[in-house]
């Protein structure tokens, strides 16, 4: 979006086997918390065999992936004690944002004024997260209401489609509850058939460029008697009319919202 560069996202376990078409001007970026993930390591070795440059984002200092890459950015999130990657995921997002801003300045696709504004938004995040953590009543109420539910659907668009995937993954890893993350625009192609009064649907519906589309998705869920848990922007009174339960997050620039959502 900001650099106007062709970019593909691949799962390491797929990338390593598909013999990707890539020229010498292609940069391969590897993201790994541990720096020892077997599929990711195999992927960067494949890239190196094709004489492609590799830049890795790692949390673990002097890991194998870090050592075998041409360049490395450490996210310094500290050790991940549990199986689920939480703080490392957030730190990786932040590192990618900072990298984008710096590349944007160098490529003249982001003005220095815009870069300052983006950095200013990022600097707000610690206090905004503190505010979010200090007001967990909505989250506790939601947990009490739905903790016995066996299945969940997570929907998101644009920057928060990956957030929907990550939310579903975390529910599976931490609570051992079946959950699926989906691009909200694809809901009509399969997931909507599963929506009924027993299926809670977590909709990331922030006040952003795809807000009206997400509201449309929520209406579709409600038309099938589904239970909607909306992650919404604080101050959004409209969403309350459609959602069964709402978790509000403080306003923030659209591209940085996945850190909060």
Give the structure's gist in a few sentences:
The protein contains nine helices and eight strands.
What form results from the Cα inertia axes? globular
| Number of helical segments with 4 or more residues | 9
CATH topology heading of the largest domain: Rossmann fold
Low-confidence stretches: none
Number of domains: 2
Radius of gyration: 20 Å
CATH class of the largest domain: Alpha Beta
The total of beta strands comes to 8
Secondary-structure element series: HEHEHEHHHEHEEHEEH
Oligomer: single chain
Q: What is the first-to-last residue Cα distance?
A: 20 Å
Structural class: alpha/beta
- Give the percentage of residues in beta strands: 15-25%
Helix content: 40-55%
- The side-by-side strand order for the widest beta sheet comes to 5-4-6-7-8
What number is the mean pLDDT? 93
CATH superfamily of the largest domain: Glucose-6-phosphate isomerase like protein, domain 1
Task: Provide an overview of this structure.
The structure is a single chain. The protein is α/β, with parallel strands linked by helices. The chain folds into two domains: 12-110, 3-Layer(aba) Sandwich (Rossmann fold), CATH 3.40.50; 135-259, 3-Layer(aba) Sandwich (Rossmann fold). It has helices at 12-15, 38-49, 64-68, 87-106, 112-134, 137-146, 161-175, 211-223, 257-260; strands at 27-32, 53-58, 71-74, 151-156, 178-183, 200-205, 227-233, 245-249. Strands 5-4-6-7-8 form a five-stranded parallel beta sheet, sandwiched between helices. It has a three-stranded parallel beta sheet with strand order 1-2-3. The model has no long low-confidence stretch (mean pLDDT 93).
């Amino acid at each position: 979006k900001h650099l106007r560069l062709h970019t593909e996202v691949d799962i390491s376990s797929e990338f390593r086997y598909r013999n990707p078409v890539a020229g010498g001007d292609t940069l391969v970026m590897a993201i790994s918390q541990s720096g020892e993930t077997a599929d990711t390591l195999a992927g960067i070795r494949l890239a190196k065999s094709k004489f492609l440059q590799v830049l890795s984002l790692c949390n673990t200092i002097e890991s194998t992936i870090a050592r075998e890459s041409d360049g490395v950015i450490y996210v310094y999130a500290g050790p991940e004690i549990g199986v689920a990657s939480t703080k490392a995921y957030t730190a990786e997002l932040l590192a990618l944002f900072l990298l984008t801003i710096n590349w944007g300045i160098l490529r003249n696709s982001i003005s220095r004024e815009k870069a300052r504004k983006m950095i200013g938004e990022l600097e707000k995040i610690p206090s905004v997260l503190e505010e979010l953590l200090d007001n967990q009543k909505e989250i506790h109420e939601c947990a009490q209401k739905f903790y016995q539910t066996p299945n969940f659907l997570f929907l998101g668009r644009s920057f928060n489609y990956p957030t929907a995937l990550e939310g579903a993954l975390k529910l599976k890893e931490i609570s051992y509850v079946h959950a699926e993350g989906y691009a909200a625009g694809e809901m009509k192609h399969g997931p909507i058939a599963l929506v009924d009064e027993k299926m809670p649907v977590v909709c990331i519906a922030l006040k952003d460029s795809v807000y009206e589309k997400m509201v449309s998705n929520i209406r579709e869920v409600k038309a099938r008697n589904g239970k909607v848990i909306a992650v919404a922007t604080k101050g959004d009174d409209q969403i309350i009319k459609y959602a069964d339960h709402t978790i509000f997050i403080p306003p923030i620039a659209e591209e940085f919202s996945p850190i909060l959502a």
